[in-house]
Amino acid sequence: MNPVYIYFIIFSCVGYLIVTDASVARLFVLLTELARIQYQKIKWWLLNNPQMPWVKYLMWRRALRLAKELEKEFKK
Predict the structure, then answer these.
(1) pLDDT of 6-55, one tens digit each?
(2) Are 55 and 47 in contact (CB under 8 A)?
(3) Are 58 and 51 in contact (CB under 8 A)?
(4) Do residues 49 and 42 touch, judged by C-beta distance below 8 A?
(5) Residue 64 DSSP code
(6) Where in the chain are the domains?
């Protein structure tokens, strides 16, 4: 049996349960929200974790720019 047919059978059974039972539909909605929130959490962690090299570089660049601005201000 082709794996595509197995996936189609599973998808159709889940779709039937979602359409006929409100609690399964609510569970499906909550699971998709949970997956979206976990994705956003991992994305935020990867982009803002101070141990990541690109975040270290961005912090260093921001600090260097601020230091140059403060140096100009103090020389005035």
Answers:
(1) 999 999 999 999 999 999 999 999 999 999 999 999 999 988 888 888 88
(2) yes
(3) no
(4) no
(5) H
(6) 3-75
pLDDT at 1: 75
Rounded alpha-carbon distances, angstroms, from residue 16 to 23, 27, 42: 13, 14, 32
Give the global pTM.
0.61
DSSP letters spanning 14-63:
HHHHHHH-HHHHHHHHHHHHHHHHHHHHHHHHHHH-TTSHHHHHHHHHHH
Separation between Cα atoms, residue 15 and residue 24, nearest integer Å: 10
